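Deliverable D2.4 — example input (structure tokens):
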């Protein structure tokens, strides 16, 4: 049973940083692409990043490029989303998701396994 658990969310002030972790159980992230997406109330889910063993890390929305990075620790089976210079627009529920394979993609349908999500709130 593939399980993903997000951690590291919470309340952060504007301009601050936060690192999210996605810990995988019962599978080795080395052979999986792991993506992060986010969803704010009233908005559609937005793909944020993807990490794969072959292609490395990809960041998609222009709004987070230069501020967000993704990386993975294969030994610990954790994929990270490092976020900096956060703004109120980054407030959302953040989800990690995985699919078996090394190709990244933004479409949610590509990923059969999802974590429960974790809240990130950027506010003073």
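Example output (designed residues):
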């Amino acid at each position: 049973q593939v399980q993903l658990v997000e951690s590291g969310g919470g309340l952060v002030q504007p301009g601050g940083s936060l690192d999210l972790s996605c810990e995988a159980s019962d599978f080795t992230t080395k052979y999986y692409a792991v993506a992060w997406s986010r969803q704010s109330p009233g908005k559609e889910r937005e793909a944020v990043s993807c990490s794969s063993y072959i292609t490395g890390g990809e960041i998609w929305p222009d709004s987070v490029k230069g501020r967000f990075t993704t990386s993975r620790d294969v030994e610990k089976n954790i994929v990270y989303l490092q976020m900096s210079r956060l703004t109120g627009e980054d407030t959302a529920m953040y989800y990690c998701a995985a699919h078996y394979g090394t190709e990244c993609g933004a479409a949610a349908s590509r990923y059969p396994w999802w974590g429960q999500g974790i809240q990130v709130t950027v506010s003073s």
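The chain is about 0% helix and 50% strand.
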